[in-house]
Amino acid sequence: MEENKTVLVTGGSRGIGKEIALKFAKQGYDVIINYVSDKTDTEELKKELEANGGKALIVKADVTNPEQIENLVKTAIETFGKIDVLVNNAGITKDNLLMRMSEEEFDKVIEVNLKGTYLMTKAVTKYMMKKRQGSIINLSSVVGVTGNAGQCNYAASKAGIIGFTKSVAKELASRNIRANAIAPGFIATDMTDVLSDEIKETIQNQIPLKRMGNAKEVAELAYFLGSEQSSYITGQVIHVDGGMVM
Ligand code: NAD
Questions:
Q1: Nearest-CA neighbor of 166 among 129, 133, 228, 117?
Q2: For ligand 1, is residue 189 a contact (CB within 6 Å)?
Q3: Is 108 helix (H, G, I), strand (E, B) or coil?
Q4: Residue with CA at minimum distance from ligand 1 atom 32
Q5: Judging by beta carbons within 10 Å of its beta carbon (0-12, 13-18, 19+), is residue 149 exposed, middle or buried?
């Protein structure tokens, strides 16, 4: 019997990451996700992910902690033997205007979003290189392309992810490992739920499709980029933004 493919989705316990994990699970993948919060109901999540036949492994690991990452990747390899697809989805915001932004707010966002992506990619790529196969998908953002007032830390981290993705794509292409970035626009999740109705309405009015996107719409692209259907696509930044940036 052919063995299942495996995907590791960071921050896959909620929001966009959870929808990505569910999409791969529904397509028969074994799924590994990490989480940071003690409140995560891992048993419930495991059941939900395994409802379609594949297996799920849920490990507590912070993407800024190299020891916890090593444990996460080692446990994944011991359990499933390989990681075919890595989705660097974990991310945070700490918005403030430049003049009010503390060094702590700046550093933390760069640490989780950009350095976390580097640490995870390095740890997983080691195993992908041995298999001479893999697909890496990094969650950037439209603001990494356009910039955004009040988000200089977040926009810098997401622009950094684009440069990182293109470099990794060039470095690893000869090993048959692809790397692409997804730039979501305005997607309804906990991250955007904190915005006031007024801000939401203003943003929606600037989107040609006149609505927020949903996490499932991002998951569809992530699945395509992870699958063999996208075998000739690498080093790209693909927007899922209702036409917000063109
Ligand atoms: P979310 O806040 O709902 O989920 C983020 C996930 O990352 C959570 O599971 C959280 O536990 C995890 N996480 C945070 N810090 C972590 C750490 N140190 N280690 C491990 N995991 C950690 O956010 P979301 O809206 O689902 O966003 C997912 C990704 O998509 C993020 O990278 C975000 O920047 C990006 N994105 C979101 C939007 C949007 O509109 N929601 C737009 C563009 C890009």
A1: 117
A2: yes
A3: helix
A4: 91
A5: exposed
Look up 35 and say whether it is catalytic: no
**Closest to 179 measured CA to CA, from 239, 226, 113:** 226
Identify the helix (H) or strand (E) that includes residue 97.
Answer: none
Closest by CA position to 245, among listed 169, 167, 136, 145:
145
Average pLDDT for 203-220: 97
Task: Report which residue type is found at 109.
Answer: V
Confirm or reject: Cβ of 33 under 6 Å from ligand 1: no
- C-alpha 74 – ligand 1 centre gap (Å): 23
Of all protein residues, the one whose alpha carbon is nearest to atom 29 of ligand 1 is 89
Q: How far apart are CA 167 and CA 56, in angstroms?
A: 31
Domains and CATH numbers, the chain: 6-240 (3.40.50.720)
pLDDT exceeds 60 at position 1: no
CA-nearest residue for atom 9, ligand 1, is 11
Instruction: State in Å: Cα 43 to ligand 1 middle.
Output: 21
Q: Whose CA is nearest to atom 10 of ligand 1?
A: 11
DSSP string, 118-163: HHHHHHHHHHHHHHT-EEEEEE--THHHH--TTBHHHHHHHHHHHH
- The pair phi, psi for residue 62, each rounded to 5°, is -95, 130
pLDDT band at 52 (very low <50, low <70, confident <90, very high): confident
Residue 40 has pLDDT above 80, yes or no: no
- Judge contact between 88 and 138, C-beta under 8 A: yes
Pocket-testing residue among 9, 13, 14, 16, ligand 1, by greatest number of atoms within 8 A of Cβ: 16
